[in-house]
Design goal:
The complex is a heterodimer.
Chain A (H helix, E strand, L loop, with lengths): L5 H10 L1 H4 L5 H20 L11 H14 L14 H11 L4 H19 L8 H11 L10 H19 L2 H6 L16 H7 L7
Helix pairs in contact in A: 5-8, 6-7, 6-8
Chain B lengths: L1 H7 L4 E4 L7 H4 L29 E2 L8 E2 L9 E2 L23 H5 L9 H15 L24 H12 L5 E2 L33 H11 L3 E4 L2 E8 L5 E8 L5 E5 L3 E3 L3 H10 L24 E8 L19 E3 L14 E7 L14 H4 L6 H10 L3 E8 L8 E9 L5 E6 L4 H20 L3 E2 L48 E3 L14 H20 L4
Parallel strand pairs in B: 1-6, 3-16, 10-18
Antiparallel strand pairs in B: 2-4, 5-12, 7-8, 8-9, 11-14, 11-17, 12-13, 13-14, 15-16
The chains are: A mainly alpha, B alpha+beta.
Chain lengths: 204, 543
């Protein structure tokens, strides 16, 4: 290590934390876990299941499956359905009606593709089969021109899923956003944050 | 501002407000979390900047259309609430500099103002003391310093931006925002929630209802009539203004207020519309329009933005980055146009990081970060990794008035109140297009210097290098411009109509040119000067 250049050292430092920084302190993990379990408990407590106003029963069941494939539960937070994303999507379809045709058509496109590839609707396909279909439409790098409409639909569906998930209490805690509080005196950013970027306040 | 000054000078003032009453202390959604609403902060028709935004209005208002001449696009943002668009702005409070009042003398384009920086400087000073503004003394010749409160420390990524700017020799200094960092005139200092745009419930930033109306109302001289859609300025037999007729939006009936003096402050285009709609046999082309100049010389700031993904900012150390409601640093114009292929400057507004709670649209277009999109566990980790790892730069530049950009009355269309609407003509010239190219190249250079990647490709010249449509920056000015020659201007140097001596304009209509310094501070200083001038003329018996 003695002769390692500063540049190389920096590269090690900046690439290593990608995995490391995802590890939470026990308190943070507990907090995120609490949000996740509260959301699940609330969902379970609801006696009558959510009745979509825009989606048909089949579409809604498909949405429920699809959003959790996009944002699954993991050690840090719950899944998209834990965060109520399908109900959020149903609301947004009514609130922003310009989205309706693309959503309905996109789900139809998804089923058609699924039937073509694995002989079943997306909802009736197995987990492995669903992933086989998603592998064709979830990556914008897929060069197949025949997939462009399905890819466009999925990208927009993924964006809406992200909006629905990361704006919940659970999602905001997961992203470690720490603002929206009253601050008596603005003292700037903490030293650790400055150090990470290699900057400092002048004359301090 | 005019109402405040006139009330304090002893005048009885009636203010016609096209929208409803509003007080940020009780009506603002300042501290709302996205999950407090099922739409998570997304835009609504009445709030295009998001449902929690502090401004009711927008580019499309139900029942109040405006039209475009063929081939033109002008987007007209209107506020419909007490305080109007002072509820919608970035609190960026820049003075125009000495050169900005005499551009024709500097580069031969446009026209000089009939007043100089020295004429308006005392009003800028008074304004700073009255409203409160933070900033730093820099001594840059055409970016005059003001009476500043201390600026807040930059956010960490803003220091990173400054590092890159320093390297590229781009001036990067503390921002100048009308947000209190120290208590002033009974208003508490900022609490750094970053949500100025939603309306400050503690009145710690500037909006007209927070700062100017309370002292005006305290005089007992001000009467505000809400939901009053002004229709026409009335005149008497001698050709003087005698009042304003308006439609009450609630009962849709016509009313009128009589007045000795009429001050228009409805916004540049709305005031021009009022004058053009005030047609009589004596004023067949509209009131105060013997020059034919009302509606002409319309400009907006030029504007475009570029975002960059900055790997260094990934996995940042979690902390509260909200700060004051805007950037803590900005970049004033730093070059000499004599060496460039466009005549006027721009400044750079910056943003980035985790400056407010994740809201509708958060992390949209993840494929722009990770290159692929994807799904599942790795996608979820990508969202965490890239959240907040962006910076964005927005240019705000000077547009030069041109003969193709103006507003007039549409001969066929009326609004829901039966009032003829505006038709817009709008076109950029090579000056703005070349300036836009320079903005794009500069922002991309800064992003590269930061080790990042621009998140959009360079737009083509055919796409005007990404220039926002005229009107989109909401800095429209110039439609009732001032000047010393009544043949080429609407108002004299006191913002008083050449044709009608008891008619004044106190919005951005009087501007002769539209320096890249966001127009609010000059509107306010000019309105203060105009209103003091009215009081003085009244006291002298000349009005």
């Amino acid at each position: 290590m003695k002769n390692i250049s500063r540049r190389a050292a920096l590269q090690i430092v900046t690439s290593a934390p990608v995995a490391a920084a995802l590890v939470w302190t026990p308190a943070e993990a507990a907090q995120a876990h609490e949000h996740a379990t509260t959301a699940q408990a609330q969902a379970a407590k609801t006696a009558t299941p959510f009745k979509p106003k825009f989606f048909t029963a089949h579409e809604y069941a498909t949405v429920v499956v699809l959003v959790d494939l996009i944002i699954p539960r993991d050690a840090r937070s719950g899944s998209a359905t834990d965060a109520g994303v399908p109900a959020f999507m149903d609301f947004m379809m009514l609130d922003q009606p310009r989205r309706q045709v693309a959503m309905r058509g996109g789900l139809a496109l998804l089923d058609r593709l699924s039937t073509d590839r694995v002989g079943k609707s997306f909802l009736n396909a197995s987990d492995a089969q669903r992933r086989q279909v998603l592998d064709e439409i979830a990556y914008t790098t897929n060069p197949d021109p025949g997939m462009r409409h399905a890819i466009a639909f999925f990208s927009s569906f993924r964006d809406l899923t992200a909006s629905g998930f990361w704006t919940t209490k659970m999602g905001i805690a997961d992203l470690q956003y720490q603002g929206n509080v009253f601050v008596d005196e603005w003292t700037g950013c903490p030293t650790a944050a400055l150090d990470k970027l290699g900057v400092k306040y002048p004359n301090v | 501002m005019a109402a405040k000054v006139l009330c304090e000078a002893g005048a009885d003032v009636v203010m016609l407000e096209a929208g409803g009453m509003w007080d940020a202390a009780k009506d603002s959604k300042m501290s709302a979390w996205p999950y407090d609403s099922p739409r998570r902060g997304a835009a609504t028709p009445a709030r295009p900047f998001g449902e929690f935004d502090g401004c009711i209005g927008g580019w499309d208002i139900d029942g109040e259309p405006y039209t475009q001449a063929p081939g033109s696009q002008f987007d007209w943002f209107r506020g419909r609430m007490l305080g109007g668009r002072t509820n919608h702005w970035g609190r960026i409070s820049l003075r125009m500099g000495p050169d900005d009042f005499k551009r024709r003398s500097v580069d031969g384009l446009g026209d000089d103002w009939p007043i100089t920086y020295d004429d308006i400087k005392p009003y800028y000073d008074k304004l700073d003391r009255l409203v409160g503004i933070f900033g730093s003394m820099e001594g840059i010749p055409n970016e005059p310093d003001g009476v500043f409160q201390p600026p807040p420390k930059p956010r960490c990524y803003e220091l990173l931006i400054k590092q890159a700017a320093d390297k590229l020799k781009i001036t990067c200094i503390p921002n100048r925002l009308s947000i209190l960092t120290q208590p002033l005139n009974g208003r508490p200092a900022c609490h750094y929630c970053g949500q100025c745009g939603r309306g400050c419930a503690t009145h710690s930033n500037f909006s007209s209802p927070s700062v100017l109306l309370p002292p005006a109302l305290a005089t007992g001289k001000l009467r505000i009539i809400p939901n009053a859609m002004a229709r026409e300025v009335l005149t008497d037999d001698s050709g003087l203004a005698s009042g304003v007729s308006y439609v009450n939006r609630t009962d849709r009936r016509d009313y009128a207020v009589r007045a000795r003096i009429v001050v228009l402050a409805a916004s540049a285009c709305e005031s021009a519309r009022l004058l053009l709609n005030s047609k009589t046999s004596r004023f067949p082309d509209g009131l105060a329009n013997s020059s034919g100049v009302v509606g002409r010389y319309l400009t907006d700031s030029t504007g475009l933005g570029v975002s960059g993904h900055i790997p260094k900012m990934e996995q940042s150390v979690p902390h509260n980055e909200d700060g004051a409601g805007g950037a803590h640093l900005y970049m004033p114009w730093w070059l000499d146009n004599k060496t460039l292929d466009f005549p006027r400057g721009y400044h750079i507004e910056l943003g980035g990081g985790k400056r407010s709670a994740p809201s509708f649209g958060v992390m949209g277009g993840i494929q722009r970060f990770n290159g692929v999109g994807g799904y599942g566990k790795s996608l979820k980790d990508d969202y965490r990794r890239f959240y907040g790892a962006t910076v964005n730069f927005a240019g705000r530049g000077e547009m030069i008035p041109n003969e193709h950009t103006y507003c007039e009355i549409d001969p066929n269309v009326v609004d829901t109140y039966g009032i003829p609407v505006l038709r817009f003509h709008a076109r950029f010239s090579e000056h703005e297009i070349n300036q836009a190219k320079h903005m794009q190249e500069t922002f991309r250079e800064i992003i590269h210097e930061m080790g990042g990647t621009p998140m959009s490709s360079m737009p083509s010249k055919e796409a005007l290098y990404g220039l926002e449509p005229i009107g989109r920056i909401i800095h429209e000015v110039g439609t009732t411009r001032m000047g010393s020659d009544p043949r080429t201007s609407v108002l004299n140097a006191n913002c008083q109509a050449h044709d009608v001596k008891n008619l004044f304009v106190a919005d951005a209509g009087p501007f002769v040119s539209n320096a890249h310094k966001n127009c609010t501070w000059t509107i306010l200083a000019l309105a203060m000067r105009t209103a003091e001038g009215i009081a003085q003329q009244r006291n002298q018996g000349t009005l």
